[in-house]
Amino acid sequence: MTTIWELDFYSRPVLDENQKKLWEMLVCESALDARSPSESLFRYSEFISNTEVNSVRLRQALENAMTEAGTRPDKIRFFRRQMNNMITKACDEAGVPAYASRRTLVLDQWLDQRMQAYYPSLDNYEPGTNPSVSLPPSKPQPLPDALVGQRWAFVSLEAGAFADMAEWDVDFGEAFPLEMFGLQPDALVPGLIIYSSRAVPLAAWLSGLELAYLRFNELPAQLVLETGAYDAWILANLTTKELQAEGKAFEAAKQQARSIHFVAVQSKPDAESFAGFWLMRELNLA
């Protein structure tokens, strides 16, 4: 079974004996299916002096985490683009491929918990803002011609339906337990199904993109799929008022579902299997 870790390496609102901010490496295991119990996922943290912020020290901390876990992950995801070179180098030297990704759901939740409760409990806590470097969004690119879906449709599923997702016939995909975000079984989760005669190649291509989230873009009116740390793809141009209204309704439903939604790929509407199915959540990463 594939093991994926999520990693963050950045300064924290905690001071060392010289009144300088400490840095910290956090790593945690990704939830890869709808039944992954979040409390059992591996987590590791290590504070690092600001004088040791380099790839060598980060690699050492990562190797400490692997020693504690008793395993080596198959890959590592990280969301801070400005730390790309250091994180990629450290992971490469530790023998694990690193991928810039906004699919760091467990890490985002854990980091928020530490910001709200753990760091303020420390004697050397120093409150204040600690923003990441803001980078401009990328311009959405058109999908390769061979991978454009022939049809698509907005749909919704009750959150409780995802409890059986492990039993679905899915070629490519990824999910997470909705309980992580307090979504009740009867809550509606909105999504988009793409129908294509080349469903499997399309799903295979999407599976290599580190899918982040789907959004409705008003000007121009488009459905945009955000991937990786900053890439974006145009899934559909919404050229009529009716389609634009559907796009707005999808975005509203997504907000009602705590930003949780999905993208699926099928060969045709009456197919009983999915070439691809990804449960996603839009994160406000900083």
Give a verbal description of the structure.
The strands form three sheets. The chain has a five-stranded mixed sheet with strand order 3-2-1-4-5, with helices on both faces. The protein has a five-stranded mixed sheet with strand order 7-9-13-14-8, covered by helices on one side. It has helices at residues 55-69, 84-93, 105-118, 199-207, 241-256, and strands at residues 4-15, 21-29, 43-48, 75-78, 98-100, 141-142, 151-158, 170-174, 188-195, 211-217, 222-227, 231-237, 260-266, 274-281. It has five helices and 14 strands. It folds into two domains: 4-121, Nucleotidyltransferase, domain 5 (2-Layer Sandwich); 141-281, no CATH class. It is elongated, with a radius of gyration of 20 Å. Helix 1 packs across helix 2 (84-93). Strand 4, helix 2 (84-93) and strand 5 (98-100) form a beta-alpha-beta unit. With 286 residues, it is α/β, with parallel strands linked by helices.
